[in-house]
Amino acid sequence: MAGYLSESDFVMVEEGFTTRDLLEELTLGGPQDEGTSFFVADLGDVVKKHLRFLKNLPRVRPFYVVKCNSSPGVLRALAELGLGFSCANKAEMELLRHIGVPAHKIIYTSPCKQAAQVKQAARLGIRMLSFDNEVELAKVARSHPTARMVLRIATDDSCSPARLSMKLGATLKSCRHLLETAKKMNMEVVGVSFHVGSGCSSDPQAFTQSIADARLVFEMGTELGYRMHILDLGGGFPGTEDSKVRFEEMASVINSALDMYFPEGCGVDILAEPGRYYVASAFTLAVRIVAKKEVPSDQTGLDEEDGASPKSIVYHISEGVYGAFNCVFFDNACPMPILQKKPSPDQRVYSSSLWGPTCDDLDHVAEGLCLPELQLGDWLIFENMGAYTVGTTASCSGQQTCQTTYAMSRVTWEAVRGRLLPPEEDTEDMCKPLSCGWEIADTLCVGPVFAPTSII
């Protein structure tokens, strides 16, 4: 074991004990304060995602995107599994160093960095940084001259809800000039990165074009005398099963493109920066109704139809967009609640909306819901709440505004303690049944593709 995660960091549960069982225990036996909210995090689900990643992308080493969810339990679990980490700011770098992650497993991938944060990366020994323009390159040259630079290129992310290339990434036309400028500044350029867009791209072929473009930039760099050996595929991997494109389909497209443009044995180290992929489905949020208001029919303008009431109900819940539901802003999420108390089939439903606990008109969580009338203190459950909901302002102390209870099955913990896969020097295949969580029946067979992540 690497020693990042211990049994004291999570609740040990037996196989067959589900997330819903733990939620039931915590909501019934927990504090009665109506303002209480909490997450339940299934670390077994995180382990399952890791094995799935290794199985489907055997040539790619994952560097988890810390900004997606920086809760201590997640970071410790992923560090225990041997992942590297992708940071966007000083706080994230310090958080990782605080829990003991070595500098060679951390990359600083934001192309838009403050000079003070570049200096902090240098002090912490973090060497791999990215750039996409001359100003950024000059900034790093002054503050971190021994950095190993990766040139971020723009991509076609038109199918993504979060089009990052509108502001980040160099065009192919500008790449040779940037590489020549880096040479004049005596900066070491070691590779290329890109990002096809956040939010589960609906067109996996975007990876194919981006990998092809990266090949061209590799050739430019080689011509100029650089040792180009890092290809960073970025993120955009789906984190839930209801995504338009399944992870396996996306991985198949990536593998085909890698075989064509960066075949095995070419000496290129291939990285990726998954975020939501690892954590989205692992977190479930429980919140309470803290206030309610009935809006009469003469204000709603609705007509009673098919037994539905024209009355509308506004509910205020114990978390809002400035807390656990910041995914509404950060990730264009549309949260859908599950009632802890199952309503009877003949119970009347009302047009309902959910608002956070503040008086801000932007603190709007969900609209147009058909719900039975709820009471103060009732619990609402939200699944798939692990991405851009937790730790966006976490400190090194790990304090969160919304408490998280981590859980893992005993079988999964025993597998993690055994390091899941053979050590680096072991070349024998390994294939055995492994339950990675509470509701997993599949057997994942993973060859010896795992090695401790490092970019040095």
TrEMBL record:
Q: Which residues carry this modification: N6-(pyridoxal phosphate)lysine?
A: 67
A GO CC term assigned to this protein in UniProt: perikaryon
What highest taxon heads this organism's lineage?
Eukaryota
Provide the GO biological process annotations.
negative regulation of protein catabolic process; positive regulation of polyamine transmembrane transport; putrescine biosynthetic process from arginine, via ornithine; trans-Golgi network membrane organization
User: Cofactor(s) for this protein?
Assistant: pyridoxal 5'-phosphate
This one is known as Antizyme inhibitor 2
**What Gene3D superfamilies does the database record attribute to this sequence?**
Alanine racemase (3.20.20.10), Lyase, Ornithine Decarboxylase, Chain A, domain 1 (2.40.37.10)
UniProt keywords (A-Z) are: Cell projection, Cytoplasm, Cytoplasmic vesicle, Golgi apparatus, Membrane, Nucleus, Polyamine biosynthesis, Pyridoxal phosphate, Transport, Ubl conjugation
Locate the Orn/DAP/Arg decarboxylase 2 N-terminal domain: which residues?
A: 43-280
* Localization in the cell: Cell projection, Axon; Cell projection, Dendrite; Cytoplasm, Perinuclear region; Cytoplasmic granule
Report the function annotation for this chain: Antizyme inhibitor (AZI) protein that positively regulates ornithine decarboxylase (ODC) activity and polyamine uptake. AZI is an enzymatically inactive ODC homolog that counteracts the negative effect of ODC antizymes (AZs) OAZ1, OAZ2 and OAZ3 on ODC activity by competing with ODC for antizyme-binding. Inhibits antizyme-dependent ODC degradation and releases ODC monomers from their inactive complex with antizymes, leading to formation of the catalytically active ODC homodimer and restoring polyamine production.
| Catalytic residues identified in the record | 359
